[in-house]
Amino acid sequence: MPLLDRITGHFQDSAQIHLNAADVLAPAIEQAARHMVHCLAQGGKILACGNGGSAADAQHFASKMINRFEQERPGLAAITLTADTSTLTSIANDYAYDQVFARQVKALGQPGDILLAISTSGNSHNVLHAVSAAHSRSMPVIALTGRSGGGLAEQMQDDDVFLCVPAESTARIQEVHLLIIHCLCDAVDSVLLGVEE
């Protein structure tokens, strides 16, 4: 296959998966945004975690909450659990890598806070442990995943929101995750600023 065709194919595949995801996920994204608005309006915070590209997505989300997205507003309470290398490495060294997020959730999370758990496969052990820790702290979970949802799908409870991208490719799942994060940021801003109900 010519390289140009391969590149064009990526754009076409991505566009189609985005459209498929919109049909499937839009109502759940709205539900997740309303959970976030309620949490923030009650003085709560959102903790976000993930590995690799999902760690970058968690940081991206938190930065848009704390600083701003596309509209001027006060900062909103969000913490990424992926950025503090001293905490991450000390937990990994003293306990185990699968505890790097769970111990932070137990220390920082309060009932009514939200955990934004991101894993393209749904099987990242440290993310699964973080979800268990969130549930033990009476924190609802918003899960971003793909494929079949993996272990994350099995951990979901009634107050959780499960956003599973209908795709197999990690790259395509991550691309949709970024769009979901932007949708969440825009929806939270729109409701808090009175643009939408």
**Total discrete domains:** 1
Low-confidence residue ranges: none
User: What integer value in Å does the Rg equal?
Assistant: 17 Å
- At the first level of CATH, the class is Alpha Beta
Oligomer: single chain
Shape: globular
User: Which structural class should the secondary elements be placed in?
Assistant: alpha/beta
The SSE order reads HEHEHHEHEHEH
* N-end to C-end Cα span: 49 Å
Strand content: 5-15%
Could you tell me the mean pLDDT?
A: 96
Instruction: Give the beta-strand count.
Output: 5
The fold-level CATH name is: Rossmann fold
* Main beta sheet strand tally, sense and closure: 5 strands, parallel
Strand order of the largest sheet: 2-1-3-4-5
Structure overview:
With 197 residues, the protein is of the alpha/beta class. The protein has a single domain (3-192), classed as Rossmann fold (3-Layer(aba) Sandwich), CATH 3.40.50.10490. Helix content is 56%, strand content 12%. It contains 7 helices and 5 strands. Strands 2-1-3-4-5 form a 5-stranded parallel β-sheet, with helices on both faces. Helix 2 runs parallel beside helix 7 (170-192) and helix 4 packs parallel to helix 5. The longest helix is centred in the N-terminal third of the chain and has 39 residues, at 3-41. The model has no long low-confidence stretch (mean pLDDT 96).
